[in-house]
# Entry
Amino acid sequence: MSYRITSYDTLQANISAAGTTIMLCRANLEQVELSHEDMMDLLWRIERQIAELKGMQVELDHMSQRRRASRTLIKSRLRVVGCCP
# Structure
């Protein structure tokens, strides 16, 4: 079984499932007894997840900028051809 994400649909489904999981954890957070060490561990894990999401956001921003730049480059190479002599 491959865990590689190869399509927008798979990526979107995974992001959606992660969001749902986080909302469910947050909704029941006050009902869970946590030691100080447990809280510190959870805070560390949350920070790591936020860092991963921010990294993904930066990568998507770079991809978007590169695509815009390549479209501009392609358009600038096109020459205007008159329709009438």
Remarks:
- The chain has two helices and no strands.
- The chain has one domain: 8-75.
- Residues 36-77 form the longest helix (42 residues).
